[in-house]
Structures are given as C-alpha cells and as structure tokens.
Design a protein that fits this description.
With 1043 residues, this protein is α/β, with parallel strands linked by helices. It is built from 25 helices and 34 strands. Strands 16, 17, 18, 19, 20, 21, 22 and 23 form an 8-stranded mixed beta sheet that branches. Strands 9, 11, 15, 24, 26, 28 and 29 form a 7-stranded mixed beta sheet that branches. Strands 8-10-27-25 form a 4-stranded antiparallel beta sheet, with helices on one face. A hairpin with a 3-residue loop joins strand 17 (496-503) and strand 18 (507-511). It starts with 112 loop residues before the first strand and ends with a helix.
Length: 1043
Amino acid sequence: MATPGPPRPNNPPPNPNYNPNNPQWLSDDMQNLNLNLPPPPTNPPRPSTTPFPASFSRPGPPPPPGAAPVRPGGPPPPSFPPGRPSGPPVSQSQPSPPLGYRPPPNFPPNRQMSPPPGARPRGMAPPPMSAGPVAPPPGAVMNNGPPNFAPQGGPRFPPPAGIASQRVPPPPLGPSMGMGVSRVPPQPQTMHALLGSSPPSPSPAVQQQRSPFAGAGQPPPVSLYGSQPWSMQPNQVPPPPPISQSQRAPGMYGMPPPMPNQSMTAISHAVGQTGAPVAGPSKIDPNQIPRPAPDSSVVLHETRQGNQANPPPPATSDYIVRDTGNCSPRNMRCTINQIPCTADLLTTSGMQLALLVQPLGLPHPSEEPIQVVDLGETGPLRCSRCKGYINPFMKFIDQGRQFICNLCGFTDETPRDYHCNLGPDGRRRDADHKPELCRGMVEFVAPKEYMVRDPMLAMYFFLVDVSMNAIQTGATAAACSAISQVISDLPEGPRTKVGIATFDCTIHFYNLKRALQQPLMLIVPDIQDVYTPLETDVIVQLSECRQHLELLLDSIPSMFQDNKTADSAFGAAVKAAFLAMKSNGGKLLVFQSVLPSIGTGALSARDAEGRTNTSVGEKEAHKLLQPADKTLESMAMELAEYQVCVDIFITTQTYMDIASISVISRITGGQIYYYYPFSAVTDNAKICNDLRWNITRPLGFEAVMRVRCSQGLQVNEYCGNFCKRIPTDVDLPGIDSDKTIMVTIKHDDKLQDGSECVFQCALLYTTVYGQRRIRVLTLALPCTSMLNNLFRTADLDTQFACILKQATNEIPSSSLLQVRERLTDRCISILCSYRKFCATVTSSGQLILPETLKLLPLYILALTKSTGLRTSGKIDERSYWMNYVSSVSTALAIALVYPRMLAIHNLNCKDDASLCPPAIPLSSEHISDEGIYLLENGEDCLIYVGNSVDSDILNKLFGVPSIDEIPTQFVLQQLDNPLSKRLNDLINEIRRQRCSYLRLKLCKKGEPSGMLFFSYIVEDKSLNGLSYVEFLIHIHRQIQMKM
C-alpha cells in the first residue's frame, strides 16, 4: 500500500506525538459564514482565523526539526472542522451550538437519551455529551438558533393503525413503530423445510444470537444501567422508563400472532385471489401505509454486547456510538447484519451483500475521539500471510507467544516486544488497555516502510475561468471573492503552498514571490502542447505570498472586465496546472463557466444535437451520459498517478457536458459543484460556504484503501470516486469526510453457521500536516443459515443506498425505462422471497412486508421518479445527480430520493422546544393553498408558496404583502419578527445537519418552479410513475403471480 509518485525533497519531520483528535475543535469558524446574504462583491470581510481542530487534518503548528519521522495522515476529527457550511453569523447574545458533525433527524434540545435494549456499560466510559457553547464571532448580526437537529434522510412518520406489524425483536433501533402487534404460535415447519433442505441442529452460537437482535420496543430496565454513564446535555432529560407489556400497540383484529423470530407488516386491500383488483376503488387508506416514523430520542449504541455484534441504528436516526469491538456504523455499515452462510441463501433472499465505507466520516461530538497508536519503527502487528492488521478478533495462543489471524486463519509468532501473557479467559491481560485490541476503529502512525517518498506538502492551486461569459455573469468575481475569504482557513505553516492561474483561450499564471512589488502575469499561449513556468515561481508558501494573493484576487475581475474572448481552454488549463503541481501533488480547485471549446479536451454541445434529432435523443439519450471521448479520462488517470485531486465548481447558465468533465473529479477522488442557472445575486454565499467546507473538512492526501474479508468471502467490486490500477486496492489522490465507497462482497466458499466473519478496511493516507497514518476499521458479524435471520437483520438504509448506487451505474449504458423496470423487479424479488419462505400470513388479500424493509417499496418508487431516472429534465442535471450519488453517504442517499417536507407558515404555533417541525408525507393531500412549505433533499431547499397564503404571513416571512411581489432572484432575509427569525434558524439548522449550504429556490403554483416542487411529491401519481398506493397494489399483484 505504498504511495506512488516521484521522490520529493526532504521536509522537516512532524511531531510524532501529534494527536488529531482533541474534542475541543468544534466549529469555531462555522459562525463566520454569511448564510442568507451573499457576500459583498468587493472587499468582503474576512472570517476570523481559528485554530484547526486537532482531530482533523489540520493539526497544530509544524513539527520541530529533528523530530522522528512519522507517517503523515490525520484522521477525521470527532466533529466538524471550522468552516463547515452553516447558518448566518451568530449574535453576540446567544451562543450557537457546535457544528462539527452531521446530526440526524429531528433532534430537539429537550430530547431523551434511549439506551439500546440489553446495552450495558463496558470498557471505557463514553465522554461527556456536551462541550459547552461555542462563542460567536465578533460582528455577528444573526442568531443560529438552539442546538436542534432535524432528521437526515427524510421525514419519519408514525404508522397508522390499520397495518398489522408482526415483529421479531429487530436490532435495537429504539422504540418499535406502532403498527398493530400480534402473536403467532411456533410453526412445525422450519425454514430449511421450506427451502427443501433438512434443518441442521441448532448450534449454541446460533441460539445466542437472539439477545442482540431482540426486544425492539422493549428498552431495558433502567437498573441495567444503574446511574447514567454519560453526562447530560443542558436541556436533556433522563432515559424513559421501560415500556410495559400493557403499553404496547394493540394487535390488528383477525391477524395471527408472530412467530418468535419473525417480523413483518401486513397491508390488506381489495385484491382478488388471482391478483387482479376487485371491482370498486382500492380499500388501502393512504394514511395507513408504511412511512418513515419520527423518533427524536438519542440512542446510545454499543457496537458489541455480550461478545456479539449489535446491529446498528438506522443511518437516518440520531445515535451516539460506543466502540466496544466493532467500528462505528458511521464509518462502515453492512447491508445485512447476519451474513448468509452460502451464496445460494443470499440469492434466494434477493438482497445485496455489500459494505458502505466512509473512512473519514465525522463522529458525533459526544463520542470518544479515535485512538492514535504509535508502535514505533516496527509499525502495527500484521498477519504475515494476508497482511491483515491486528484487531480485537485475532486470537492469541500459547501464552501469548502466537496469534491466529481472524481473516485467513494463519498462525504467526508474536514479536517479542509485543508479547503479553494471557488471562484466565484466554485474552491478553493488556487487551483492555491497547486500543487495537479492544476497539473496532483505530489509527496507527505509519513507519518509514509505508512510504516511498517523503510525505507530500499541502498544496492548493486555484484555476479561475475569465472568459467573457464568466466575467459578464459575475462568476469570476464570485470565485475570486470566495477564494479571498477562505485563504485564512488554509493550514498554517511552511508546509502549505498555494498557486493561482486564470484562463480563457490562453492560460495566465502569476508569480507571487514576496520579492516582487506586485504579482507578475506569465502567459502560456500554446493550448495544444501545454507547458508551465517554473514551479518555484507560481507555487509559493502561503505565509510568503498572502498579501500578493489577496491583491491579485481583488484585481482579477477588473483586469478582465473588457474581455471579449468567449472560448475556454479548460482541458489545457488543467493540464498546465497539473504540470506545475506534478512534483508534489495536491488539491486543484477549478472554477469553470462555459463549455470547453478549444485546446486539449475540447467538447461540443452534444445536448443540442440530441434534441435536434428527436428519435436519437429518445432512444440513445443514455449515450449523452457517457464521456464524449477518452481525452479527459486519460488526463485524469495521469493526475491521479501524481496524487492531484481535482474539484470543479461549475458556475454556468448553459449546457456544460458534465458527463465528460466530471470524469476528472471522479477518477482523482474529487467533487463536482453545480450552480445552475448561476446567479451572482443568490449564489455568491453558497460558493463561499462550499469552498470553505471543501478545504476545512477532514482531508487525506495520497491515500490507498483496501478491504479484506474472512475466508469464504471476497471483495467483488469497489464503486465510488477513485482511481483503480490493481484489483485489490483503490487509489485516492484525495479523500474527505463526505466520501463514501461501496464495496460489494461475494462468496467463494461456505461459511460455518454460528461463526463470525470479519471485514477490515485499511486506509493509508497523509494529513495536510505531513503525517502518514493507517486508519483501520474492523467489523465482525455472525453467520447464519436461516433466511429469516437475513430479513430480520437487514439494514434498510444501507440496502437502499447500494441499490441507488448500482442503478446509477447502469444509467449510462441502459435506457431509463429498463433501469426503472429492473428496480421494480428487484423490489418484487426481495418481498416475494420473504412472503414465500418467511411469512406466516397466508391471506392473498394482504401484502406482507418484512418489518426491517417495509419502506423499501416507498424508496424504490421515489427513486424511479428522481432526477436521475425521470424522463424529463436536462442532461447536465442528470449527469450531476449521478456524480453526486457515486460518493453520497447512506443518510444523504435517503434524503436525496425521499426529501423532508415541513410546513413553515405556522412555525409560530410550534413548541419552542423543537426547532424543526414534524415532517409531512410527500403527498399533495398534505399541501394546502393557504400554506407555505419547505422541502429539502440535502442539496437544494425549495420553498413553495400557495396562492391563497395570508398576506400577514407573507409580510412577516418575505416583507411583501403579495406572492407576486416576491422577486424571482429570491434571497431570504431575516426580518424583525419571530416568524422570520424562526424560519432563518430552521434553514440554518438544516444546513448544519446536511453539511451543505443548501441553495434556496422559491416555487409558485402554476409556474415551472411549482412543477419542480411537485416533482418531489413522490407519493402522488404523475407522468413519472404510479402513486404510492397504486405501486403497492402493483407490487402485491406481481408477488401473487410469482407465488
């Protein structure tokens, strides 16, 4: 896993004792962001400089010369770095909550902490849940509201009373949904009889699995915890008392009770025995169908209990993780929390076996920081056969002199300096004192053998489009203003270097050396055979060129204000910047406004060609989602080889061919930002906030990642933003806290029922301060030969995120109709398998859904109507959506297809304890002409204003008496009234939760903006597909036909 790249000059070694996980790093700079007002076009105020949180990739001062060389690489911090996209500046009078993490759903200040059933404290006690308020920055004018966290991934609604829910105690995910519970006597027939095989005798290990998966809805008695092992937050109340049997939801009349290990939801409706609907309207009540349910409690999740894996809470819920052997589900989740023993069993279930890995994912601020382990020049203990890293599941034998690898089964000698005697229980006596032996996630300081060159410098190069269109639309001024404002957020010290260039039909570098009186422009006219000036002239230490850089950024818009060049040499400019960065690598941030038209990688307007020829546009539209040629792809591979990560900010009002341009970001581990149609009035603040979060979030350079599995399993494929040169590893010139990689798993042998299989992800990377680190994530899950256990422990959010990513990969090579049909067939296959082999209810008039996957039909329907799969829409919008999905996290994947909708016209009526009002189902039945609604999907925030809204409400929220007077280029202001303040606080809170400065769009009925809003109302029937009720009936009919 050594890092490729040319040798570099020696750099002073970093401090070997540096620990990037100081919890006191929370969002000092977050309060400096201008949320609702675009930054002034000239001479904007600079945010105050704050120290980079120690737990991020921005450690403290540079290491002293003479310190022992260590492997760079700083793990992501336990919370957000300064500069995370957030709300407007906070007022001096009311401190703002910490912003250093991605909070989950409806998280009111007066919330209850619900420990998972059966949890018991062990190992190290969790840290305090509150670090105290963060002081607001000087000059703040607005309030960011109380520490309230709304749900990520869409609303969750309580289930209606007409749905029978047969519940097997699922994983401890908090209180069960109140869908009538009833009980069924044990059936004589076993799963194996249903599958045509003889049932094996139950092993003791299998029988022990019940405890971690049992008792959803039955929180343990408080006595199991004794006094609370964590400190309470200011407004927090103690955990609720256990729910008694008499308090549970009543059973549905006429439904048999569930089997001991079974959980399902039955929906009755008017479908005949043959599957055809009976005469008359459907009897399904739209208010009684499965929808996401709200849960404002915070769950304390121990990753293992009683030496067994504890299934994680939903990704969209709020939880605090206590690492007791398995890694945090925020960093690695599996689609099924019990692994099928055979490939045939997995195929029968219809489900996917895959991992979603977010190695640098942000922790909850109340969680303990990741432990950094320095074992000196010997480095971490590893298996000599499979190279797996030491972890809590490796077994030591022969009084600790040998150890057995839990991945490949090989027996190795324990190094003498790592030896320790075993205790009576067979564990090492020091196991609880060594993080690598008791925690599922640790970070090792990498010794010299993990380096092929000195750790790279933190290099940032800015490339700005100054063509005529960019100048006239204000995109160039917006880019320069944003860069100027975030310069102070770059890492301090001599290891940080910066450079800048502009381009139109030629490329303009700038010499920023301090010796010059002012920056000197160096022009490169040849855009076919690109060259670059001396690197030492154009890339300079930040501390030496800050004044010159700020002067240049202020001057660029006026220098090119009369530019009449419409062409853009984007490809040539990227190539030239790469040549300047080649010897080191680093981060290249490109601001592009028009379609690249000349030079290397020039593109044509394929979108217009497709629309001119209607038949071609309809039949082969998917070809427009493929890169136009291999030029930019070849360039991207070269960039990745030399550790250059490219982020592209597209500020445009026209077609850009994102399908071709995005290849550069995808292969180099970067990101695309898309501002369409760009407006200098409304988008300046978003560009500034996006850029600040881009450079301040946890970041790793020159990274290599590999996932290893136990014997019997192997990695099938990696999916995400990376470069892959060999089958086993993925190369990541850049990786950050927002990037997720999907890893699909396949069987190569049969697993033993009742045993545990292990997945281990190792990420070798460099921090921005030049430390080389190895982050190791380990997850051990039980194996099962029972199909029912697969459904009982399925992770809906992770299953759906994988389905979403796989469907996205199919879009460029298949028609949208084919992709939508395959999605529906996959949903039917999973539910049919459950109905056929696991369900006990036999009435053909009922649709039986497994409790853990009862929202799967809703999410699949929403996906078929999403931006990426609906027929209408622009090619660039679909390309951007696909690029976003490729690296999206599990929680944001749900929000993307099933957004959260809130009523904001009556915010004054809400209880002050909860900043975020209850979410509303995405159905027009819940939308009134007299109301105003906010809908957010993690990327955009739409505000829909009905035609009959009271003028007093319009005045309070928007400062106008009539909807017609709200300007088209809408910028939300905070007015002097409680309703306006509450709306601003709500929007800023959502921005914090999503780690994104959501772009506000005003939508009106009868206008294209109103059609955009209703395209997200996925439960209604539309041109894009069936209604939710009709889709459930269709699913049921298809299942009956398969039975």
